[in-house]
Specification:
By secondary structure, the protein is of the alpha+beta class. It has helices at about 60-65, 75-90, 150-170, 175-180, 215-225, 235-245, 250-265, and strands at about 20-35, 35-50, 95-110, 115-130, 135-150, 195-205, 270-280, 285-295. The chain binds guanosine-5'-triphosphate.
Amino acid sequence: MNALTLPDIAAQAARQALPLEWVGMCGIALPVLFDGQRIGAKADAGVSLDDGEARGIHMSRLYLALEMLEQENLTPALMRQVLQRFLDSHDGLSSSAYLRIHADLLLKRPALISPLAGWKTYPVSIEARLKNAMFHVELKIEVPYSSTCPCSAALSRQLIQQQFIDDFANRQLQHEDILTWLGSSKGIVATPHSQRSTAQLQLRLDDFLDELPLMAAINDAEAALGTAVQTAVKRADEQAFALANGQNLMFCEDAARRLNLALQRSPGIRAFQLRVVHAESLHAHDAVAESRWNWEAA
Ligand SMILES: Nc1nc2c(ncn2[C@@H]2O[C@H](COP(=O)(O)OP(=O)(O)OP(=O)(O)O)[C@@H](O)[C@H]2O)c(=O)[nH]1
């Protein structure tokens, strides 16, 4: 080695010859384009190290390939091109490549009644793999929503009935008295508990999709759940939200079943598993349900 040559440790022979399943970098800062919107994302990029004799992979080659994601909309085809570059730049060393992009997707959501709107973040991650020319993409999405306990609602209704019996026993029922009673705190002596809940969706996508079906999956999940958390809220919106919750009582089991049926019909998805977490206000622990479709087969 002369004084001007930089030592290349990666090219040396490994001390212990052993292939590795995954080598790469995690948490690389990266601006990506989604639907024309630039999002600050983090990327995990890696390849297998099949050549057990080689000391290391070439991290800079993976890093530089990520530049391809800066100018074009994020699509399955673009992710495949990046993965192919990972493999081309590791010819003889690697046979499988992996790319995961995670970010908070910002979507503007309208209010229920008033002509207002506000922003909501949805944590998403897009994982792509390429091995032996087989390319797979998986989406992970978190969707927050509100759930009101049906059991608590029934128990509250019973207490309201009991209060009605106590207040109106042996009295002639007058429409106006009942209306006044309903508008008083006695007309709602008990309230059911609600909780902010989260649906965690893991979706395996059909092959050869032109676009990532992120928006469709989020919209379909929110429509199935019925009570997505809100952004800009005036009193009219809050009242509409109270009504929506009252008409939409659900255990975590109900939420998981509804999501399962909705995602089976959502475009571009060939398999999924999902988990719903109701962060109970009754307990200090959560109520959780999981469901799958085509998961083992896919
Ligand atoms: N393989 C490997 N590289 C690491 C690690 N930690 C830091 N690096 C550094 O990543 C840098 C880039 O590696 P390479 O892609 O091999 O850089 P290079 O040899 O200049 O580039 P090429 O000529 O394309 O191979 C090197 O300076 C490595 O020291 C590690 O744990 N493993």
